[in-house]
Design a protein that fits this description.
alpha+beta, 7-stranded antiparallel sheet, Immunoglobulin-like, 5 helices, 2 domains, 5-stranded mixed sheet
């Protein structure tokens, strides 16, 4: 099938095309890929009418480069992305069009990507925004460690509902064909992505593993051994970093919950012994792991607070590989002119992300 797109003009406009149908016959689905560190979430549109009827149109948000803390973002066709669970909602034409307008606006002007701060947000913040644009669909829990929206938390919520289960009007399904992407095509390689929960667990003791998923260089800083008591506990202070510009994860070594997204920590141990503590700081430039031992005794010397001065990051250059060269526009549903496959020189007006545009298209055949 040919894919000729000789030219396209984007100009200010005055009105928006709308759908005349109101029947609830479309689906909007939200997928999760929980593949360890490279977890990802994305949204798929399944129109049952209109110019793209029968297609599965998937969109996900990624970092366009190696800066995952406020660098440029990119919206990708995720139809060939691996997935583990999904939740699907039957939506009206108005809900479908609201979500489609949100996606089209962000495709045209991709927002920055930020792993821990929303806005601009990560891939899971992205699906939350798309769901909200569809008339306020409330997705199951998406928040993991430190209150960050993350694929593994969303996947755990869907798995808890169970295959075929229903929650909040959405139906959960598990992937029975892991070799196929959401649109039925063979799973293809995907751009780099990162699950903040998995990174928080892994990076303190194993920064090299996280480095392979991010492209960021790892560094390990052994800090020695410190003594304290059961009553006094142990304190750590970070300098030259901030919780809104890095993923900060503290493992005290005693099997308790992680601490994170802060620059000051204090912990008391429940039993005497020697504990292998570690703290990771992932920022735009490096994965730094600080590792030390804490000897806890009933009484005796107490170490002063440990002060860690995080090196100033050297921002990483380069791009995140694996994006499509072109991406089709999501047409509004039922009764609206198609934005794919229409005659040369046809004119359509589209409301995208709160801004009005005229799209002047010349195409020989549908993008399909």
């Amino acid at each position: 099938m040919k894919r000729a797109v000789p030219w396209m003009l984007v100009l200010p406009a005055l009105t928006a095309i709308t759908s005349t149908a109101s029947g609830a016959n479309h689906q909007l689905c939200f997928y999760v890929d929980k593949t360890t560190l490279t977890g990802h979430t994305f949204a798929c549109f399944m129109p049952k009418g209109g110019p793209q009827a029968g297609q599965v149109l998937c969109r996900g948000k990624y970092a366009a480069g190696l800066n995952i803390f406020g660098g440029p973002g990119k919206i990708k066709n995720d139809g060939a992305r691996h997935w583990d669970q999904r939740i699907c909602y039957v939506v009206t034409a108005a809900q479908y069009n609201g979500a489609a307008a949100k996606v089209n606006g962000k495709q045209a002007v991709p927002p920055p990507y930020h792993l821990v701060k929303n806005p601009p947000g990560n891939c899971t913040n992205w699906i939350t925004a798309v769901a909200g644009a569809a008339g306020g669909i409330a997705l199951p829990n998406k928040f993991g460690f430190f209150g960050i929206a993350t694929p593994s938390a969303f996947g755990a919520a869907l798995k808890a509902v169970g295959n075929g289960g229903v929650i909040g009007g959405g139906t959960v399904a598990y992937n029975a064909l892991p070799g196929q992407g959401a649109d039925g095509s063979p799973v293809a390689s995907a751009p780099r992505s990162l699950d903040s929960d998995q990174a928080a667990v892994t990076a303190p003791h194993n920064p090299n593993t996280v480095a392979s998923a991010t492209g960021l260089p790892p560094s390990i800083f052994p800090l020695g051994t410190f003594q304290t008591t059961l009553a006094a506990g142990f304190s750590v202070s970070l300098h030259n970093t901030a919780a809104d510009s890095a993923l900060i994860s503290m493992d005290w070594g005693d099997g308790g919950p992680l601490d994170g997204q802060n620059i000051g920590f204090h912990h008391t141990y429940a039993a005497t012994g020697t504990y292998q503590a570690a703290l990771a700081v992932i920022n735009d430039g490096a994965i730094d792991s600080y590792q030390w031992s804490v000897v806890v005794q009933p009484a005796g010397p107490v170490a002063p607070p440990l002060n860690i001065n995080v090196p100033t990051p050297s921002p990483m250059g380069g791009t995140n590989p694996g994006f499509d060269n072109t991406i089709d526009v999501l047409a509004v549903s039922d009764g609206a002119p198609a934005l794919d496959g229409i005659g040369a020189g046809a004119l359509a007006v589209l409301l995208t992300g709160g801004s009005l545009f005229v799209l002047l298209w010349r195409r020989r055949e549908s993008l399909g």
